[in-house]
Design brief:
Elements: E1 3-8, H1 14-20, E2 25-30, H2 35-45, H3 56-63, E3 69-72, H4 88-92, H5 96-106, E4 113-119, H6 129-140, E5 143-145, E6 149-150, E7 156-157, E8 164-166, E9 177-185, H7 226-241, H8 269-273, E10 277-278, H9 280-286, E11 303-304, H10 308-315, H11 317-321, H12 340-348, H13 353-369
Parallel strand pairs: 1-2, 1-3, 3-4
Antiparallel strand pairs: 4-9, 5-9, 6-7, 8-9, 10-11
Helix pairs in contact: 1-13, 3-5, 10-12
Length: 370
Amino acid sequence: MKYKTIDLCAGIGGIRKGFEMTGGFKNVLSAEIDEYACKTYEHLYKENPRNDLTSDEFKNKCANLDYDVLLAGFPCQTFSRAGKKAGFEDTVKGTIFFHILEIIKHSKKRPKVVFLENVDHLTTHDGGRTFKTILERLTQLNYKVIGVQKEENGNISYDPKDFIRNSKDFGIPQNRPRVYIIGFDLKQYPDIKLPDHIPSKGKDKLYTDLNDLLDKNVSEKFFMSQGYLETLERHAVREKNKGNGFGYRIVNLDSIEHPIANTILATGGSGKERNLILDKKNGKKYAGKMYGQKQTPINNKFVRVMTPTEWGKLQGFVNYAFKNEKTGMDTFSFPADVSDTQQYKLFGNSVTIPVIKEMAETVLKILKKQ
């Protein structure tokens, strides 16, 4: 029997997929409101995820559902500091985490495990109070969170660093620190023994470095125009003169022995400009040519943005999670009407599946011992 999961703030299903890859989990309900994410999710999993987790209708559905693990890559919305004595529900009402707590509280069969993922800045948001509040509320709901110790006086102690893990340590050449919170229900497992830490590295090395995953044949549309590249170069010089480090980055220069990508971002533009690629092989074919709506010819320095497929590899969707082990065929794809712009956004907003799989294997191992 597989453990049943619900997939909240589902995106394009990266957390769900990482859990399913262990062979020990099966998803029974999903919630997502972004239309392009929903289209892609339905395309990949043949299930409709269009549910609003903040709605009473969805909460009632969860309350009566038989499931074991709650998964959520929830957004870090601002936690209000108003009404400090009014109680948690008054101070954070309206945030997604509040609604996740409501779902846990009102489930007739409490989830055995809660798995949450977020940006690493969650640990420092509002001077660390937001993160502390999240861990405190899960502890008060009687969940034992890996990395959290409960003191005799009822307070909790923890090291925020113990919750941050980086994709680059899990076989993927991307510098992507993220927060992972894993809690087990003490009502169902009062004597549960948990490891002191969540996994800190992966068993598999998917790529030697960034060069190892770059596409061999790349369209000219991904190469920057001369004018735009010069604009970025001028901007970088101005920022450097001001003492700032901001600017575009070519991440695979010949001088870098084992290059890795910077964090890919859902915002698209800045995420792409900080991950520019030196591609001499393809660039030599296009340098000096006009293309599409570009106002100036393609640059003669062979610089391009990464492709959506390369971003898919950096998150483990492409060439990993949807790859048939027997045939070697990769079945990942987007629906035909999802543009490159949306593909960048969806990948940038998602999770690194190899990291999730490693976390899920730890969860599965613990559950099997109970």
